[in-house]
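Handoff note, outgoing to incoming analyst
You'll be picking up this chain. Sequence as last confirmed:
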Amino acid sequence: MTVIAIACFCIAAYLYFPLPPKKLTHQTSVAVDDIPRPETRLASNSEILRALEIIRLGISSGMTISDALGFAQQRAPVAAARELEEVLKQFNLGFPITRGLQQIATNNPRWQPISDTLITSLNSGSSVSEQLADVEFVLQSSIDTEKLKRIKSVAVKSVLPLGLCFLPAFILLAVIPIVAGLLTGIAG
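Most recent structure output, in case you need it:
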């Protein structure tokens, strides 16, 4: 019985504190084609939010939209900067900036509200800083909602080791000996 309880505690400890993955201790020679290349990942909501803050700062300081995009491209997180770089490449080749903004929204749908706002401003000539502030608020709200969902899921996941391991171990080590002692006291 004690062995089962100890096994339950070990399993619970492993579920709460898993071992880190093993690292390679030595390098072997690998062909050039076998070298893993870093995958180009899309910018996350938080990276796009950071880029949006920089774009809005640039526009509110009097920069044009293309200048603000260039300013943000230099200071944004890597994935967002790479996506903004594609917009600026097309603009530098002579295409309208709206084409690059449409392309960035097609490649990464997280850019869609920002792209739509900038395109509307470019087409109508209206001020864009207030609309970008609204987009920033909505994007920040969605990031906060996502964080809350992850926090709530941790609470549910943490009950699994408790229910599967700690409670059976407690029953085996505490409850059963007490019940057995009471039964032997009553029978004796």
